[in-house]
Structure formats: C-alpha cells, structure tokens
Amino acid sequence: MWMPWVRRQQRADLFASGGADGSLTIIRQSVSDSYAVIQNLPTRQRARTLAVDPETGQVYLVTDLLGMDLSHPGNVGTLQTDPVNGSFQVLVVGH
Fold it and tell me: Percent of the chain having pLDDT more than 70?
C-alpha cells in the first residue's frame, strides 16, 4: 500500500495517509527516538496526497469520488469506475 507521509517539525509528529482505506495515521516521535501511534483518523477513500501547514499545523488531504457512467452500454466486467466530475475535495484536519 502506498503511504505518503510528512513530518511536522515543531512537535515531531508524522502524518501518513492511507488513501485506499481512508485513514490518516498520526505518529509522535519522542526524544528517545521512539515512535508511537497517537491516532488513526478516518478520512475519505482516495485521500492520499497530503500537505502540512507549518504555521498552523493543519493537515490538508485531497480526494475525489468514483462512480460509474451507466449511460454507455457494457457487458459484465466492462464497467469501470472513473472520477465523478465536480467531486474534488480538500479535507482539512486540525487540533
């Protein structure tokens, strides 16, 4: 599973987004260089790409929705999911 991550320097927090299952894992690094999962926060599926604002500490994730275009005829196994027009979203996670 592809796990993008980013580190916030002020609090030694790491953020890892799991877009496939729709989660944001928050990990804290202690001074002894050990790590502990602080929280597994549910987000939306496909919310993989993330960025952290170093001033506010807010985490931004981007996602969209998938759907099927049923207006085109198809046989069993030929339906494909595509991004739904206008479904782009920015999720903001803060304290």
Answer: 75
Residue 3 has pLDDT above 50, yes or no: no
User: What pLDDT is attached to residue 78?
Assistant: 61
Q: Is residue 69 pLDDT above 80, yes or no?
A: no
Measured from the Cβ of residue 28, the count of other Cβ atoms closer than 10 Å reads 14
Task: Give 12's DSSP letter.
Answer: T
Secondary structure of residue 71 in the 3-state scheme: coil
What secondary structure does DSSP assign to 22-66, as a single string? TEEEEEEE-TTS-EEEEEEEE--TT---EEE-TTT--EEEEE--E
Residues 50 and 27: their CA atoms lie apart, in Å, by 15
Q: Which residues contact 75 (CB under 8 A, 6 or more apart)?
A: none
